[in-house]
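FIELD: query
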Amino acid sequence: MIDAYIGLGSNLGDSVHNLQSAIHALGNSNGIQLIRASQFYQSKAIGPGEQPDYINAALHIKTSLAPEILLDQLQAIEEQHQRQRGPVRWTARTLDLDLLLYGNRQINTARLTVPHPEIPNRNFVLLPLYDLTPSLVFPNGVCLSDLVKQSSGTGIKPIKAYPPVDFQ
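FIELD: result
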């Protein structure tokens, strides 16, 4: 089984419920074992126009699924949560699931880039990942802890009512 990390986000509907439901769906998926969920965070939306704040988290899993099959599973769960894909990027959504890391692999295909290229620029990804594995080292040798130290920490706040959860 491969260690993988999933980014979760929602800013439409009951966002906390959407993330909890997605975690439950992943836990019930063949080939996926839940390890740990980060604390939930509230963050400012990035994208066009006025949008509600996001609720974000990250999830550490072990999987026997190939990367693109895992991506298919993530997109199926998004669709089950009425995710609408359109031509404009970074619009509001009921659920966004990103494959952030897949073992120590670097993947660059038409459908999938891993590690997710925006990880270093997004506090709403860095902080939840840090909750899960502070000692994480990316395939390029960069330490997550160094990226967190360099980040501004602005635009994001922890939601104390939803702390990290261990599934083991």
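FIELD: remark
The mean pLDDT is 89.
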